[in-house]
Amino acid sequence: MKAEPSEFDRFDAAMRKVLSVSHEELQRREKKWKKERAAKNRKKLPKR
Q1: Rounded alpha-carbon distances, angstroms, from residue 21 to 2, 24, 25, 29
Q2: Which residue among 1, 7, 18, 29 is least enclosed by CB atoms within 10 Å?
Q3: pTM of the predicted structure, to 2 decimals
């Protein structure tokens, strides 16, 4: 029977997954997300 991983082990595994993504990839994804969010916000604004 295997023991449940500790809170530190879960945190460590999550950080390793996050840090495995390159900085350039994170910037590209953030730029795309911001562009999509801005487009959604423009649609919600009332027209004057």
Answers
A1: 30, 8, 7, 11
A2: 1
A3: 0.49
CA separation for the pair 19, 25 (Å, rounded): 11
To the nearest 10°, the Cα dihedral for 14, 11, 29, 45? 130
The total number of residues written for the chain in this structure: 48
H helices of 1-48, where? 7-19, 23-44
Report the alpha-carbon distance of residue 15 to residue 38 in Å, rounded.
29
Letter for the amino acid at 40? K
Q: Which residue's structure tokens are 């023991």? A: 3
Report whether pLDDT(2) > 70.
yes
Residue 13: band (very low, low, confident or very high) from pLDDT cuts 50, 70, 90: very high
